[in-house]
């Protein structure tokens, strides 16, 4: 971006379309490019572009004068706007005669793209670790091994990592003599800060449960309990397997842990997920797939993308309820609706393969699931209806001691 602005001619200034990532990261990138070019950076939202043509032209002339005198570049953040505001924004961009950055989550659909498109790059584990090490460099008792576990769980942008480090500094006492050092372990504070930061974006997509249940609350056969503990062990050892042993660089896909909980209502599927979230120190987010699936073409993929993009930040155990609402057997293509329904399933399978976290899906009808989907599930746990002895044990655990 900086090189393009330095080489651009006054009559044809470079326009940059910056896409992907989050708003703050895009702003940081644009600001860094402006500094390297010797430009100030100003920010405007697409909502503020006048829809009246005369007012819009006047704003464009005034800004062009200021941009030349300062000199400066403009960052135009394009959000979700209506058709009229979109037309006004497109007209303002087309008429820009000074350095301009068009920032958006997704590429703009325009028939005549001009300038350069820059996609916010994703950070690999090594880059993520470097960010955590730099942010926590002055915080005592946090070793690189602790930070590797954070990298395995959280995929946070740089400014969020710095915010988490600032929260840890704020919560730590000024001296170890002021309080019980075990009560305020910096590693636990860092994990908690990562959880809080990672919740952003998921709270509006699902129902969050702060887990309280423990293993003793589960009444399951030894076989099912053993599989659940094995899933927890897989999640805990991700940092060792993926980073220290180097499997993340060779596998690339399928780094997450996915499980299917099959059984009727009331057999303990959600409780088991809560127990696992408690054991792993994660939030539990319940996503109702019947609410995610839309009758409008393309909307289901959009909803799923929002869920997975937010979940990629980490800090959550995803529980997809009513999986058969979307993961039923793919139908024979007879019309366009069947074709798009199959695309929805394929998109979900692709995202699940690439998802780094722990995703649990529940179903009441295991036989209705697509075999291609079943092949991508690492763990399958059947929750049978509890027998007489299990039901008696559940009653004993539910009733207060004086009422048994």
Automatic annotation (TrEMBL):
Domain AAA+ ATPase: 255-387
PANTHER family: 26S PROTEASOME REGULATORY SUBUNIT
Protein known as: AAA+ ATPase domain-containing protein
Superkingdom of source: Bacteria
Listed SMART domains: AAA (SM00382)
A UniProt-annotated Pfam family: AAA
Gene Ontology MF term list: ATP binding; ATP hydrolysis activity
Protein family according to the UniProt entry: Belongs to the AAA ATPase family.
Native source organism of the sequence: Streptomyces violaceusniger
Signal peptide annotation: none
Keywords from the UniProt entry: ATP-binding, Nucleotide-binding
């Amino acid at each position: 971006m900086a090189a393009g602005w330095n080489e651009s001619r006054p009559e044809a200034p470079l326009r940059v379309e910056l896409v992907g990532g989050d708003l703050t990261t895009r702003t940081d990138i644009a600001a860094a490019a402006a500094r390297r070019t010797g430009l100030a950076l100003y920010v405007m939202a697409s909502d503020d572009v006048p829809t009246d043509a005369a007012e819009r032209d006047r704003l464009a002339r005034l800004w062009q004068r200021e941009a030349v005198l300062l000199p400066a570049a403009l960052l135009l953040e394009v959000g979700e706007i209506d058709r009229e505001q979109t037309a006004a924004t497109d007209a303002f961009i087309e008429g820009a005669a000074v350095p301009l950055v068009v920032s958006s989550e997704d590429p703009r659909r325009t028939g005549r793209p001009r300038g350069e498109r820059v996609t916010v790059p994703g950070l690999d584990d090594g880059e993520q670790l470097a960010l955590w090490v730099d942010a926590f460099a002055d915080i005592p008792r946090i070793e690189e091994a602790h930070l590797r576990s954070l990298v395995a769980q959280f995929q946070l942008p740089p400014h969020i990592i710095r915010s988490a480090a600032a929260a840890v500094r704020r919560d730590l006492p000024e001296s170890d003599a002021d309080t019980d050092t075990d009560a305020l372990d910096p590693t636990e504070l860092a994990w908690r800060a990562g959880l809080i930061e990672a919740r952003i974006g998921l709270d509006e997509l699902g129902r969050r449960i702060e887990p309280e249940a423990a293993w003793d609350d589960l009444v399951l056969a030894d076989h099912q309990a053993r599989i659940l503990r094995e899933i927890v062990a897989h999640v805990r050892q991700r940092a060792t397997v993926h980073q220290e042993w180097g499997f993340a660089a060779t596998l690339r896909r399928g780094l997450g842990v996915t499980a299917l909980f099959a059984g009727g209502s009331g057999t303990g599927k959600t409780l088991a997920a809560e127990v696992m979230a408690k054991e792993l120190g994660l939030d539990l987010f319940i996503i109702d797939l019947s609410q995610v699936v839309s009758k409008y073409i393309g909307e289901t993929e959009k909803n799923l993308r929002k869920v997975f993009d937010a979940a990629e930040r980490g800090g959550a155990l995803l529980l997809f309820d009513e999986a058969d609402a979307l993961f039923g057997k793919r139908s024979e293509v007879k019309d366009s609706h069947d074709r798009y329904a199959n695309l929805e399933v394929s998109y979900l399978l692709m995202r699940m393969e690439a998802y780094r976290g722990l995703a649990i899906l529940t179903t009441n009808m295991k036989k209705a699931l697509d075999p291609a989907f079943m092949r991508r599930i690492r763990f399958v746990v059947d929750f049978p209806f509890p027998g007489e002895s299990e039901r008696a044990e559940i009653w004993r655990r539910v009733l207060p001691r004086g009422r048994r």
